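Run log // design_07
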């Protein structure tokens, strides 16, 4: 996972381990996929000067 961990993440892990039912096991920093995260679609507004189509449709799908 990421190299930076925040204080709340460590505290939450400790709290979950302390309060968990016996039949649960808590693991932190578990990779869920070998692939990097991906999005199916990403909509980006084009703010380039001279983009006439982007100006006409700004804010609407």
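design_07 sequence
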């Amino acid at each position: 996972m990421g190299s930076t961990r925040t204080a709340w993440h460590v505290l939450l892990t400790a709290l979950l381990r302390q309060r968990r039912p016996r039949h649960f096991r808590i693991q932190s920093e578990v990779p869920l996929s070998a692939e990097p995260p991906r999005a199916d679609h990403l909509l980006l507004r084009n703010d380039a000067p001279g983009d006439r189509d982007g100006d006409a449709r700004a804010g609407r799908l």
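The helical segments are 7-19, 52-57.
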